[in-house]
Amino acid sequence: QFAQKDGFRFFMEKEIYEQSNVVSDCMLGRIQDEEILFDEIDSSIIEGINEIKICACGTSYHAGLTASYLFERLAKVRCNVVIASEFRYKEPLLTKDTLFIVISQSGETADTLEALKMAKNAGLKTLVVCNVDNSSMTRLADHTILTRAGIEKGVASTKAFSTQTVVLWMLSLYFAKQNDKISKETLQKEIHALREVPKSLIVSDKMHEKTKRLSKRYLHGHGFFFIGRDVFFPLALEGALKLKEISYLHAEGYPAGEMKHGPIALADPELFTIALMPENLLYDKIKSNVEELSARDSTICTISPLEFELSDDFIKTQKTDHYMLEFFEMLVVLQLLSMEISVRLGNDVDMPRNLAKSVTVE
Ligand code: G6P
């Protein structure tokens, strides 16, 4: 209740700008020269574990999906992700060789909390990645890792997501090291990239102006497809969710390679494709997916460090040597774009209709 907007128009805007700093706080003391440390957990947490199951809702679910790629790629541990409201009633098979991770900004979301209770009752080891200390979930879980994002007021979550993703990336490296699944060189490379994340999250005036200017072209049409591959698929889901939440425009996040199995039928100039085209991950694959959409006349906005001749609009991101740095910069672009579209449509950015910051009913 004491939070101030500090000269920003909206809490969401302030929180987008805060990301660089809060992510530094989130990493503080957790990255030592060549190692990841979490004082709040110990190495026994991963002993005897053959699988990680992640459960969450909303934006936190998107952080979980992103993490599932990192846990498998870096820590070589099987990982699956379930939406909490689905998990509760699907009669899930739970075995004790599974580490159960819940992700929640508030620590109070009813479905996630109930999923956590189910896992505890089944005798699983549990861990919560949470932004609120002493919340229902941190009290219940065996282990807690706090995201240190500070109070988040905007209903559309921003800094909670970036800090969750950083924590989960660090955790995948922590597990990788504990289980001896990562080479020294790869670990060094990953840690080097992690240290650069705060820089990737800095909002430049130029970028903000660009999204402001572009937003006026994306107020109508019959829908948006945000597309990406690998971790850029959950990022696409998150971009689409942000837009839906505050602009009330119809948007879907889709795995780029899946467009040909149905959604491409919708393509025409009134269909807006927002394509996430990182240089460091599957660039040629996504490029051919975007070419297919372009050939069907979809209006295309690409976000990439590389110019792409078929784009109607192009948002240029910085060149880096790690796809996760591209991920965080693109995250900021998507947040800004949805906010500026919402502003132009005259909506209340911080208090979108029908939504609540924390959903404590089923
Ligand atoms: C609500 C909020 C979302 C949030 C979701 C999960 O729907 O509007 O922004 O992602 O709940 O919340 P949690 O606190 O569990 O992360």
Automatic annotation (TrEMBL):
Give the signal sequence positions.
none
Give the GO biological process terms.
carbohydrate metabolic process; fructose 6-phosphate metabolic process; protein N-linked glycosylation; UDP-N-acetylglucosamine metabolic process
Its EC number(s) = 2.6.1.16
Keywords assigned: Aminotransferase, Cytoplasm, Glutamine amidotransferase, Repeat, Transferase
The SIS domain covers 41-181, 214-352
Q: Which reaction does it catalyse?
A: D-fructose 6-phosphate + L-glutamine = D-glucosamine 6-phosphate + L-glutamate
Which residues are named in the active-site annotation? 357 (for fru-6p isomerization activity)
Q: Where in the cell is it found?
A: Cytoplasm
Name a GO molecular-function annotation: carbohydrate derivative binding
| Main localization (coarse) | cytoplasm
Annotated GO CC locations: cytosol
Assembly and partners are described as:
Homodimer.
Q: Function, please?
A: Catalyzes the first step in hexosamine metabolism, converting fructose-6P into glucosamine-6P using glutamine as a nitrogen source.
Q: What is this protein called?
A: Glutamine--fructose-6-phosphate aminotransferase [isomerizing]
- Which span of the parent protein is shown here? 239 to 600 of 600
